[in-house]
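Each record in this resource describes a single protein on a pair of labelled lines. The shape at a given residue is found from the number at the same position. The record below illustrates this layout:

***
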Amino acid sequence: MKLAGKVAIVTGAGGAGVGGLGVTYVQALAAQGASVVVSDFDGEAAERVAAGIVADGGRAIGVRCDVTSDDDIDAMVRAALDAFGGIDILVNNAGLARGKWNEMSTLSREDWRYIMDVNTIAPVRCSAAVRPAMQARGGGCIVNQSSNGSQMEAGSYTVSKYAIDAVTRVLAAEFAEDNIRVNGIAPGMMTAKMPAAQVQSLLARQTVRRQGRPDDLVGALLYLCSDDSAFVNGQTITVDGGMARIPNQ
């Protein structure tokens, strides 16, 4: 129970994301003793996931939160404080590509703004919102969801995830005085809905020849959220079956 007594918020944890990654995250954190705030744009889905954790003996609440809304983010933080009395961990898991993974110059301004708002700006706003609560606890851990796509050429998605890697480094430096560590996880191809030919092309670049599963990221998550990584800050760990061995190749 590495995280007994800790309180964690995970955004995008209602189950709609790739392979239900956010659900896996909150379940793993709860299994290690953390009280979890299941946050999602779909509030009913968040509450269902939280109810499942409670039924299994954990502590959880579900909260509706649109991470592009500062009011929603503030309400999410208040809900965590009201329910559990503090915040120790934030996992900025919410993200999207609007089904336009590889578009760049053809992408509309509206799509650009929304993708960057969710994937890059929202983690900054969520991190800023939890900072005072983490200060009050003497520190904390923030984990940003990146992607090995940041090391390749995948249109606007690459840009947003390359940017979140920079956000991780900058926030790690900015929050260091408060004993708040900021790191990231960069998954490879998970259970994504891609054409079969594209899946096979990507698998051929890996040294582990299968698609990733949400469970493959749990080890990295628990490492970054616990004292096991007490000397790790500003880093993004790539967990992608060996695909991104040489960036931009």
In short: The two ends are 41 Å apart (CA to CA). Residues 39 and 50 are 9 Å apart (CA to CA). The chain has a mean pLDDT of 91. The longest helix spans residues 109-136.
